[in-house]
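Feature request disguised as a bug: please show the residue count (298) next to Protein p34 in the output. Example input:
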Amino acid sequence: MAKIDRVQLIALMSIVIGVVVLALKYLAFVLTGSIALYSDALESIVNVVTAIVAALAVRTSGRPADKDHPYGHGKVEYFSAVIVGVFIVVAAILILREAWDGFREPKVLSGDTMGLMVNGAAGLLNAGWCWVLVSQGRKLRSPALVADGHHLLTDVVSSAGVLVGVLLATATGWAILDPALAAIVAVNILWAGWKLMSDSVGGLMDKALPESELDRIRALISANAEGAIEAHDLRTRMAGKTTFLEFHLVVPGTMSVDAAHTICDRLEQAIRGEVGHAQITIHVEPEAKAKHSGIVVL
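Example output, currently without the count:
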């Protein structure tokens, strides 16, 4: 199965998992009457919406380059992550409203054991799927899946905290704990939404690869450019699962075009073997253009 097919399959499964978790959490709220559990269920609605957005994004990003989009459609995944962040913020505002109502009129919880068990089962299902999204998203280089997984992780953490808090509220009779927990969940969601949107903006602004990856690429160029003199002006950016990479390669002035092309082919093969899906542009220059400050060829 092709990589993009796997990404789409995982994205579609996220919708199914999201709907199941939403149903379980809403059932837990009905059984207990807890505002905190209601806020947990409300966040699951956002999970379903974000899963749908992610599925649409990975489907679009997998489309090949065309006349109107010669560099492909990979950046749509960053747009989807921003949209997810907006939905997260909206969910947090709705939860804060419910928490405020609970502060004004606290009510004693029913303490329904079955409701708490149902909520716990939903949390465990979310935790397992969160691990799948983040690990597979990184492996398949899908920002949309990773973003969905990170959002789901905040849901897992907040759900665990809510469950413990509701147990304490039920055991102690302190009704005020219920809306307080809902407010804490809302603040946690707001922080996750802000971080998600800020990370996505970096992709939209063509942020360079992390320094550790740049070092690996420089080492590959140095080790596989035999016959050239140096490489300089390395520039990188990401668009979905595709890495865009370009640099200048300085060769002896007497070298033939055919020989220079052979070096470029060798470099492209080595870089793609390490980076994966990549669009590589190499500008060949004569030795008079050497800057003596770039990548030294071994």
